[in-house]
Amino acid sequence: MTSQLFLIVSAFGFCLLAILAFYPLSQRVGLVDIPKGRKQHQGAIPLIGGLSVFSGLAVSLAFFAPDALHPTYYLLLAGAIVILGAFDDYLDLSVKLRLAIQLSVGLGMVYALDLHLASLGNLFGFGEVTLGVLGIPVTLIAVIAAINAFNMTDGIDGLAGMLSLVSFVAIAGFMLLWGQPEQALLPMTLICALLPYLAFNLHLVPGKKIFMGDAGSMLIGLSVIWLLIIGTQSETSSFRPVTALWLIAIPLMDMVAIMLRRILKGQSPFQADREHLHHISLRLGLDPRESLTLITALACIFACIGVIGEYLMIPDVVMLLLFVMVFAGYIFLLQNIWRILSQIRRRMLRSPK
Ligand SMILES: CC(=O)N[C@H]1[C@@H](OP(=O)(O)OP(=O)(O)OC/C=C(\C)CC/C=C(/C)CC/C=C(/C)CC/C=C(\C)CC/C=C(/C)CC/C=C(/C)CC/C=C(/C)CC/C=C(\C)CC/C=C(\C)CC/C=C(\C)CCC=C(C)C)O[C@H](CO)[C@@H](O)[C@@H]1O
Ligand SMILES: O=c1ccn([C@@H]2O[C@H](COP(=O)(O)O)[C@@H](O)[C@H]2O)c(=O)[nH]1
Questions:
Q1: What's the alpha-carbon Rg for the chain, to the nearest Å?
Q2: Where are the transmembrane segments (predicted)?
């Protein structure tokens, strides 16, 4: 019990110390995000959030984590992703290299720890969908999807941090209450490590703003998919695979929707732009803080739908159909947002006062 408490509390402390130590260094080595093109923030911002969260986690897990969390494998694989992200923050690596390293990390999860998707639950109402040999490629796609989905949310202050907090809180809740209390330590530790980062990123510490960088957003994506697989695929699983979709609904829907929109426009699905949900929210006239609040609230609502579905044991097929309907609505809304808005404005102008 004491070491569990030390693990969680020390993650907060070590992450805070790492931020304070890395902040002056980042300026000296040039690990800063300079505004240009689609990067529209003010000033050179240190890209040390991800490195600090990882360093804090590494010390806490190395000292206090129980073996059940597989701290060595987690830190090795997460470390590889953080190094990849840090190099990408510096040098803008090629898509091929990024995907190759993400794939290798996925293979590490599958073969070193046997962490993979073997069952999708009773997804279509005809009995359990087991993946057999397809389990490995599907896991690798899910790992790459989760890493990049969270990476794409990191475009306004606080967003990647808050969306991951929503997922980690929900996962920790399921694990604590439904039979995986020891595994719940990892999401709880991640939550505590993220809090100091969020305080700096959201200007709660004046004059010391930081970003998490690709190192941080990819670390979060990997940690989320790691926990979703443990939470849904272990013998003592604490929630169903379909519920996982609701716990990461916003990053997942935003990534799939933007890739579809780019393909439909004849562009590469990997071409960066300012068309993500948070960018559209800014163009609608909300400021970054309002956009953060709106998108986080939506993520909370989707996570609550997942929790309610799990609590009431609503059949998987119903939860999947509902998710597909929400996703279709999301795509329709984003595709037609400007037409819908101008129609609303026209009606408001025409209607008598
Ligand atoms: C490029 C970009 O956008 N850039 C952003 C970014 O800029 P930044 O500078 O940071 O980054 P860069 O530009 O430098 O570069 C970014 C990175 C790259 C260029 C590299 C690659 C990028 C990618 C986009 C790779 C994506 C690759 C993939 C393999 C993803 C493909 C996706 C899919 C095929 C969808 C996968 C969906 C799944 C269903 C799998 C589930 C996935 C999970 C993660 C959940 C797993 C959990 C479980 C426990 C499993 C449960 C699973 C089930 C029960 C579901 C089973 C599903 C079915 C049977 C199918 C039926 C389901 C449906 C029909 C529902 C489907 C609906 C949905 C999935 C929604 O950031 C900047 C700042 O923001 C930005 O400006 C810039 O543009
Ligand atoms: O907390 C944050 C994180 C990011 N931003 C802005 O988004 C871009 C994202 O850069 P990528 O290289 O595409 O990841 C960053 O340059 C900032 O302009 C932010 O404002 N706050």
A1: 20
A2: 6-23, 44-65, 71-87, 99-118, 124-147, 159-178, 184-204, 211-231, 243-264, 292-314, 320-341
Phi, psi at residue 39, to the nearest 5°?
-90, 100
Q: Which atom in ligand 1 lies closest to the alpha carbon of residue 98?
A: 20
Cα–Cα dist 230/115, whole Å: 7
* Closest among 71, 152, 172 to 113, alpha carbons compared: 71
Q: What separation in angstroms does the CA of 138 have from each of 118, 240, 258, 306?
A: 9, 16, 21, 22
ipTM for this prediction: 0.95
From 238, 252, 292, the mutation candidate for ligand 1 (largest count of ligand atoms within 8 A of CB) is: 252
Identify the DSSP state of 46: E
Q: The tokens 């404005």 sit on which residue? A: 345
**CB of 75 closer than 8 Å to CB of 58:** yes
Q: Does the pLDDT value for residue 164 go beyond 90? A: yes
CA-to-CA distance for 158 and 168, rounded, in angstroms?
Answer: 15
The atom number, within ligand 1, closest to the CA of 278 reads 74
Which domain covers residue 230, as residue numbers? Answer: 2-350
Q: How many domains does the chain have?
A: 1
Say yes or no: CB of residue 98 within 6 Å of ligand 1. Answer: yes
**Whose Cα sits closest to atom 56 in ligand 1?**
120
Query: How much is the average pLDDT of 213-221?
Result: 98
pTM of the model: 0.96
